[in-house]
Structures are given as structure tokens and as C-alpha cells.
Write a structure and sequence with these properties.
The protein is of the alpha/beta class. It contains 19 helices and 23 strands. Among the domains are: 1-161 and 487-502, Glycosidases (TIM Barrel, Alpha-Beta Barrel), CATH 3.20.20; 166-272, no CATH class; 275-333, no CATH class; 522-606, Golgi alpha-mannosidase II (Immunoglobulin-like, Sandwich), CATH 2.60.40.1180. An 8-stranded parallel beta sheet has the order 14-13-12-7-2-1-16-15. The protein is globular and about 80 Å long.
Length: 615
């Protein structure tokens, strides 16, 4: 590495890892575009316990009343906003530039049938959309978090929900098995009760495809499929008050996650909002505009985006951007969760074109990396992924801001997914595959998301609760027996070790992204791929100078020597990561030697000054 590049990386590493005391310009944080942010995603309950006094959320009684049981993976463990504030320097030191915080709104503490109870520690069972859950702290604590993050140059993205609330509404009817199967619009139309043999209700209602106030004024009876009711002791539990009226919910029973039920059904009993209703749209816009105005947050990650009608998002997103702009946040970030766990971005791209999302979580990236590193697919899968970037609204430029990721709190960690796809894989090979996946995440196009704990080598037992381990010392048996990648640290200890090899690797790659903007915001073109495991390479270009960088990966379990295309003006290569050849093998061609699961990041230098490509 040449001295200038080496010094730049060293300086970036030092800045990322040093304790943060100096204030960073608030305006400078806000001026950064969404493209190129390095996002750290966490669940507050599982991160750090800064105030044990709020562990029970101010509630009295046992775990089924308070929701607190640190020995049970489905209950509150004690993490809170004060603890997160205490660990912001750890996140900053990793090289993150934004923190995506799991939902902090007040939740129903415990729900579920007897013997199947669990708690709202994850934040997705909201009863009060206007305040922080007492298990996490107060609204003042959240404001302190935002201010402390901004002082460190970190943006704060809130995780929000508009699809559903906690399970409060009940139905009079119940199936023989005790459940509430989905009842379709065809079998149970809005104008009838109990199917085609029933009694006409809601006369004149033209259906959910007409979201005008005049049309919905004629929807006066919510008992078109089931007969909904709210238990007396929960009749005013939701805030704002309008959320307590069953008329603002679909009330069609549980979704099967396919077909019509995917949009109109309850998620395992969670009350599914009638998002086609103009009052629901107006109410949700007011709720989430207020969080922007009061707290000055920098973005929203929106849960369950594909389970809400497009008209809702078309009405919702512009007011959020307008409110942010009025608050002095010109680059407010919005990205939706469109959970489609397979390669190919054609499906998720429609949400940017039809629904108006500026960005969506890049499930297609996750599915493609999993295909080539865990399922034995050829690297053409990655080439096809990036070819599809033109499908997004805004095309390849917009794709630079798509949040990319490897695993998450729902599907599981990438290490766990590999173990699922490759039973019996050895520890060394697992570490090598996970390490290569992170190099891909941090050097290929998009805004990478690090799921908390991955930088400490976490390997969960599966998805959902099995992927939501504690960063502070755990008391959960199923977490304590988990292996760790590249570390012998006992699982009972805390996991904030900046010397962990994965933490150091991510920090080094984050420093490269800072020193070389091509790796964070630069245009990308695919250079080399094949229909089998092996070479995958791309070029990325500095957004200001047009300087070219070559990034190459070996997805196979054996060393390879392979040629890849580069710009014809290239003569020499400078190694930034891994090992690059010193010179091209011919104009426009470079021969790479990559170890098994190896990678390289190279800066390409032209034969003479002033001849760098500007493609």
C-alpha cells in the first residue's frame, strides 16, 4: 500500500476507534445523503441495561404481568435507552454512521394464549404510539439518545409500524380448533354478515378500493366477517384514542401470509389496521410526523411494508419527507421491509415505483449472498442481482442507498443461515464464509446494515427469538450455550470487545469506505462472474474523480487464479485489502490469485497522470 493511502486508512481507523468527546456539527450529520451510510441495527432490550430500575416497566407482579424474565428468550431482559447511550462510542468505534433502533413505543407487556405467552420486548406489539415503553425509559431518554448520537455524527433511524397494533380486539366467533381462520372478501363481503346467506350490512359501501371519506362514511358496521369486540379492561388501552375503535381494523381473522390474507389478515392475532381507511391514514401520518418534529430523528425503517395497501404509502411517505424538510432534515431516510427471502430484486423494486418508497431493505442482496456462500450457486446470481438495479425507481443511482444486510432479528444471523444450509460445516469454514460475506456487504453497492452481535461472532440457534441474544451478560440458557465465531470469549460475559477479530475487520473496512468514497457511494459495474462458485468482481468509481477500484471475491473453497476485466487505462494496482497484483497482465485485464473464500480491494492507477477513466 502506498504511503498516502496507508495514512488515510490509519487516520480513518483512529477516528473511528477513538473515544468521542468533541461535538460534531448537527448540520453536517443532516447533510449526509442516505447512500453510503453504514447502519448498525439493534434491539434495545438486548443491547445494554443502563437502568435496572425500569426492568419491569413500572409494573407489579410476576413475569406474566411485567413481561420481565431474563432467563426466558421471549421476555424482557432489561436493555434500555440509557444503556444504549452508554454504548454509542462502541458503535461509533465500529465505523457505523447511523443507528437503526428497534421499536421503542409502549407495547402490550405480555400476550398469547395460556402456556404460549411472550412479551413485547421486541417492540412490535404497540398500544401507545406516542410514548416510549417504560421498560426502555422515557420520551426524554429517547431525546437524549438522539442528541447523544448526533453529537457523535451518528444518525438515528426509528423502526416504526403502521400495519398493526398489539392483540386487543377479539372476535365472538371461533373455529372448532379455537382459532380465527381468515375470511375472504369474496366469502364475506363488506355488504353482508356471515357469508352469502347472511344479512345485508354497510349499504352503499363501495369497498376498500375507494379510500374517499364519503365512501368510508358508509362503512358503519365492522362485523362483516367476524364480530369484533374489545374487552372492557382494555377498552382505552391504545393511544391515540381513535385506535380503540374496531371500525378501523380489517377484522378478517389470521393471515396465512399469502394471497389476499397477506394484506387484510391479522399477524397471529395482531390487530390489522384498515389502512385503506382515510381516518387511519390521517391518524398514522399525524403520529409519525410528530416524532420527526419533536425528536429530530433522521429516518424511518418501516415494518411489514408489503402487507399494507399501496395507497397508504402513497399518502404517508410525502408528508414524512415534508415534515423532515421543515425540521431541517433534508436527507430524511425511509426504507421499507419487503420480506422476500430469495435472489432477484424485481419483486421488491415495485415498492419504489408503485408505492413511492425511496428505498427498501435489500432482501434480494441477502438472498443472493446466501445463494453463493451457503447454497453452492454460481456467482452469476450476484451479477443478475445487480443487473436488476435498473428496476428501482431512480435506477442504479437509487440502488446505492438500498440498505443491504446478511441476516436479521426475524430470519436469523448469516452464520445460522449457513449452518442451516450446510449441516455439519466445520468452524473454520463457517468463519471463512461469514468473513467473506461481510467483505461483500461492506464493499459492494448499497448502505450496509450490521446486525448487532455479528461483529462479536454471534451464532444463533435459528430465527426470531433464537437470533436475539443479549450483548450484556445473559441469563438465558439457550444463548449461553451458543458458539462464537473466531473467539473463545465465554457466552456469559458481555460482548463489547473492540479487539474481537470480526469487530476489527468491520472497523478496517469501514475506515476504507471513509478513505475511499468509491466504496461507499461510487457507481458499480460487474466485471467477472461464472455459473459456478469462484470469481466475482466489480469495479466501483470515485463519485468525484472517476478513479476506478477493483473489488474481487472467491466464493469457492479452493484457491483460484482468474482474469477479470478492468479499465484499459489501468497499468498498476495498489492493494487496499487482501492482495492485489502489482500490474495488469494486458491492457484491460488483470489476473488475480485469490485464496479460498478470499477477497481483494485494489485501487487502479493509470499509466500516466490525467488519464483516469470517467465512465
Amino acid at each position: 500500500m502506498k504511503r498516502r493511502a496507508r495514512l488515510a486508512v490509519m487516520a480513518a481507523l483512529a477516528a473511528a476507534s477513538a473515544p468521542v468527546h468533541a461535538q460534531v456539527s448537527f448540520d453536517a450529520v443532516r447533510a449526509r445523503p442516505a447512500a453510503g451510510e453504514l447502519i448498525y441495527f439493534l434491539l434495545p432490550d438486548r443491547f445494554e441495561n443502563g437502568d435496572p430500575a425500569n426492568d419491569r416497566g413500572g409494573l407489579k407482579g410476576d413475569w406474566l404481568k411485567t413481561g420481565f424474565d431474563p432467563a426466558a428468550k421471549g421476555f424482557y431482559h432489561g436493555g434500555d435507552l440509557k444503556g444504549l447511550i452508554q454504548r454509542l462510542d462502541y458503535i461509533k468505534g465500529l465505523g457505523a454512521t447511523a443507528v437503526w433502533v428497534g421499536p421503542v413505543f409502549k407495547n402490550k407487556p405480555v400476550q398469547g394464549a395460556p402456556g404460549q405467552e411472550s412479551a413485547g420486548y421486541h417492540g412490535y406489539w404497540i398500544t401507545d404510539f406516542t410514548r416510549v415503553d417504560p421498560h426502555f425509559g422515557t420520551n426524554a431518554d429517547f431525546k437524549a439518545l438522539v442528541d447523544a448520537a448526533h453529537a457523535r455524527g451518528l444518525k438515528v433511524y426509528m423502526d416504526i409500524i403502521a400495519n398493526h397494533t398489539a392483540d386487543v380486539i377479539q372476535y365472538r366467533e371461533r373455529a372448532a380448533d379455537g382459532g380465527f381462520p381468515y375470511r375472504s372478501r369474496a366469502d364475506y363481503p363488506y355488504s353482508r354478515k356471515g357469508g352469502t346467506a347472511g344479512t345485508a350490512i354497510n349499504p352503499g359501501f363501495a369497498g376498500d378500493e375507494d379510500s374517499t371519506a364519503d365512501n368510508f362514511a358508509r362503512l358503519t358496521d365492522p362485523a362483516f366477517a367476524y364480530t369484533p369486540f374489545v374487552p372492557a379492561d382494555e377498552s382505552h388501552v391504545k393511544v391515540p384514542e381513535w385506535l380503540n375503535d374496531p371500525a378501523f381494523y380489517h377484522n378478517r381473522g389470521n393471515t396465512t401470509f399469502t394471497g389476499e390474507s397477506s394484506r387484510f389478515g391479522d399477524f397471529v392475532g395482531l390487530d390489522d389496521l384498515f389502512t385503506e381507511h382515510p381516518r387511519v391514514r390521517e391518524g398514522m401520518i399525524a403520529i409519525y410526523r410528530q416524532w420527526i418534529e419533536d425528536f429530530g430523528i433522521d429516518g424511518y425503517r418501516i415494518d411489514t411494508a408489503r402487507h399494507v395497501d399501496p395507497g397508504f404509502w402513497q399518502a404517508f411517505i410525502p408528508p414524512m419527507l415534508e415534515a423532515a424538510k421543515a425540521r431541517g432534515i433534508p436527507n430524511f431516510t425511509i426504507f421499507g421491509e419487503v420480506a422476500r427471502e430469495e435472489p432477484g430484486n424485481g419483486y421488491i423494486a415495485q415498492y419504489t415505483r408503485r408505492d413511492g418508497y425511496p428505498a427498501v431493505l435489500d432482501f434480494a442482496f441477502e438472498g443472493s449472498v446466501r445463494a453463493v456462500l451457503a447454497q453452492g450457486k454460481g456467482t452469476n446470481v450476484l451479477a443478475e442481482l445487480f443487473d436488476g438495479d435498473v428496476l428501482y425507481e431512480g435506477g442504479e443511482q437509487a440502488a446505492l442507498a438500498m440498505p443491504t444486510f446478511l441476516g436479521n432479528h426475524d430470519m436469523g444471523r448469516f452464520s445460522s443461515l449457513i449452518r442451516h444450509d450446510m449441516p455439519g460445516i466445520g468452524q473454520a469454514e463457517l468463519e471463512a464464509r461469514v468473513r467473506l460475506a461481510h467483505v461483500m456487504l461492506l464493499t459492494l453497492r448499497g448502505s450496509p446494515v450490521i446486525y448487532y452481535g455479528d461483529e462479536q461472532g454471534f451464532v444463533g440457534d435459528g430465527n426470531d427469538t433464537d437470533a436475539r441474544e443479549d450483548m450484556f451478560p445473559s441469563r438465558t440458557a439457550s444463548y449461553l450455550d451458543n458458539p462464537l465465531l473466531d473467539a473463545a470469549r465465554p457466552a456469559a460475559a458481555d460482548h463489547f470487545d473492540p479487539a474481537h477479530p470480526f469487530y476489527r475487520m468491520i472497523r478496517a473496512l469501514a475506515a476504507l469506505r471513509t478513505a475511499h468514497p468509491a466504496l461507499a457511494r461510487g457507481r458499480q459495474i460487474v466485471r467477472g462472474y461464472a455459473e459456478k462458485p469462484g470469481l466475482f468482481s466489480v469495479s466501483r468509481f470515485d463519485p468525484a474523480t472517476g478513479a476506478e477500484y477493483l473489488i474481487a471475491f472467491n466464493t469457492s473453497n479452493a484457491p483460484i487464479q482468474a482474469a477479470t476485466v478492468v479499465g484499459t487505462s489501468t497499468e498498476t494496482l495498489e492493494t487496499l485489502f487482501g492482495a492485489c497484483p502489482a500490474r495488469v497482465s494486458a491492457p484491460g485485464s488483470v489476473t488475480l490469485d485469490l485464496p479460498a473464500f478470499g477477497s481483494a480491494v485494489c485501487r487502479l492507477l493509470p499509466s500516466s497522470p490525467g488519464t483516469q477513466t470517467t465512465r
